[in-house]
Amino acid sequence: MTPSVPSSARIRIGSAPDSWGVWFPDDPQQVPWQRFLDEVAEAGYAWIELGPYGYLPTDPARLADETRDRGLTVSAGTVFTGLHHGPDVWDRTWAHVADIAALTRAMGAEHLVVIPSFWRDDKTGEVLEDRTLTPAQWRDLTAQTERLGREVRERFGLRIVVHPHADTHIDTEENVNRFLDATDPDLVSLCLDTGHYAYCGGDSVKLIETYGERIGYLHLKQVDPEILAAVVADEVPFGPAVARGVMCEPPGGVPALEPVLDAARALDVDLFAIVEQDMYPCPPDKPLPVARRTREFLRSCGRPGSPL
Prior knowledge:
Elements lengths: L10 E5 L17 H10 L4 E3 L10 H10 L3 E9 L8 H17 L4 E6 L18 H22 L2 E4 L10 H9 L7 E5 H6 L4 H7 L4 E6 L1 E2 L1 H10 L3 H6 L3 E2 L8 H9 L5 E5 L11 H14 L8
Parallel strand pairs: 1-2, 1-10, 2-3, 3-4, 4-5, 5-6, 6-7, 7-10
Antiparallel strand pairs: 8-9
Helix pairs in contact: 3-4, 7-10
């Protein structure tokens, strides 16, 4: 039976530089930032993330002008952290976070997406550290993440949303549950990325239904199950897996996004749902048609009284 969907639930759909093949602040294989802003607006999105810090202009006044001229609003910034390494990395982490948080706040956004560091290099596959955390590292990860949530809220008025990610220590259902159970809901929410969670064997609908109060933000993407099976069998790192096409255009993969969005609506909270179509590197003319089709598909997932 389909659950009753509260009419007050609001899902705000956006996109991100990632959907244009942007992974780095500066890379000759990526489209210029002006083209990204032009095309994301042309594709029908009103919300965007900042992407890698330095890709979009970092001067708040200029970025505000550029986004406003295109009818765009920023939903979140993104930071990368290695907080399981303990207090010794705090100062370095905060130096990375502070500038991004300041720009995010200046743009009127309220969320900071926190991505854990990779245990293996996402390009070369070089193993950087053990893929399994020790109990002490888990304690450092949870305590330091709570500290980050507190500091970001107090200094910038932002809420952190931690992003489970392939090839990190917060990835599988077991590790995500362990992380959520060990952190303060008042300080730490989750950015559920449907593609990454499926990549790591998780069920997004089950996670939303089990930890609904922790879901603070969504990233929408799908994986190709056949490519994923080969990637897992061959132990392919995440970057080369993306180059193989493991993240595919909706609705051609898993998980089905309609049930995910229905479960999210049933939480009766406002949520951002940001499309992240991982496809680095990609031809410069590929992203816009994909983004248009994805936006139309997501509109078809809406319900009367709660359009997407």
